[in-house]
Request: fold
Amino acid sequence: MELQITGLNMEVSQEVRRYVERKIGKLTRHFPNIIESIVEISQEKTRSPQQKFMVRASVIGNGIRLHSDERGEDLFQAIDRVTSALDRQLERQKGKLYEKGKGSSLARGEFQIEKAEPFQPEVVKVKRFAMKPMSVLEAAEQIVILEHSFFFFLNTDTDELNVLYQRKDGNYGLIEPELG
Reply:
């Protein structure tokens, strides 16, 4: 398994590298065919005196691609949480593949991934609606009225198309285009 550990806006110490290698290495007990793991560690800038760390990890294997990210005031706890989340995802994936293989053992690597056909997305429905220019607040009201999780609208403040979405924490997120 190839393991890439990078630090964004910070230097990753040898102690942290060894810790990540040990924790990520344990993931192969569920899925021995992990090809690559990528771990990004960053230190977030906050106004409080306490440091916050963000750990993002991806695991790529034979037919799988899993991702998790965690934040924490303690870097090692954030690493523990991200590897725990990936461990759960791999366990679920292993169960799905076990059912698909009808009894082959993933723990010993006795399975074959079927050659998947290239993904060909198909548009099954087209919806058209009149786009009335509105503010972000009006778009939020539309989300509540329509009981949707997002709303596509023409923002009157920027004259650009935006997407307003409801986050899991109950707040809203706004997606604005960035033309490059």
Observations:
- The first strand starts at residue 2 and ends at 8.
- The chain has two domains: 2-101, 122-180.
- The domain at 2-101 is CATH 3.30.160.100 (Double Stranded RNA Binding Domain).
